[in-house]
Design brief:
It is built from 11 helices and 14 strands. It is an alpha/beta fold. Strand 5, helix 6 and strand 6 form a beta-alpha-beta unit. The protein starts with a strand and ends in a 7-residue tail after the last helix.
Amino acid sequence: MKILVTGGAGYIGSICAAELLAAGHDVVVFDNLYQGHREAVPADAAFVEGDLRDPDAVARLFQQHHGFDGIMHFASFTLVGESMQQPLKYLRDNLVAAANLLEHAVAHGVGRFILSSTANLFDDPAKIPIDADERIVPGSPYGESKYFIERTLYWFERIYGLKYACLRYFNAAGGTPDRGEHHEPELHLIPIVLQVALGQREKVVIFGNDYPTKDGTCVRDYIHVLDLAQAHILALEALDRLGSRKYNLGNGNGFTNLEVVETARQVTGHPIPYEFGPRRPGDPAVLIASSETIRRELGWTPRFPHLAQIIGSAWEWHSRHPHGYRR
């Protein structure tokens, strides 16, 4: 199949583009390089620089490249905290980008669409792990923007017959030898911990040590980025057979912040000092997503479920690329 990957110069999108190519698909990457990196785009993928918020740029994309069989939509503003400070960047810009993309998708007969959604749809889950049919209460304007896009896809299926899958997950982590996590600023725990191991930070600050967990620190669900890519590809290939779907993705286990630090110490051989800071407002004690539905329907199983595997792959990339994609 010929697949358009929006946000394919970003962390998850570039690795998914590489995995699509490895699976024999043709790939076109569309990215504005706001947080993405041109160096992350696989060499065998066609690259088009442009912004989904610009309808003319999207029109040129579909004029230049014909015959997409499917779209994987990763391009998005994704920072929960920022969305609480700049809500329209999310509630407007994420929606405009998706609307422009969907308008041209149906106009050009694209029949399959995979949305990289978020488990931030579930701010107040009734139970943990969070099932795919859990009631949706978005935890931020970022989560709300993804829910709006999910609802738009619902109507596009009813009106235009567009088949879609929404994949919701919390914390992508890990890397491949060629691609890894490079954000500016970096706000994610595992790369921050590894920056301490590299001597680029003095210490890690862990927010809160009085949660009702086994060591008092938050429990979070980390999933290897290659396992995420595999789930996206399986979902794409199953749309014709199963129809539209919504899947939560998790590795089945949660890890505390202190477990992340201790595992990173073992993987890297560095002491990685840390200190406790105050709780961050709105941080729940435990967030773990259930992947029961996608395991049952698509046979998806994480290949790298262990924290040491996830951090080890991230450390391999960060060690080889201590300054990320900057030369």
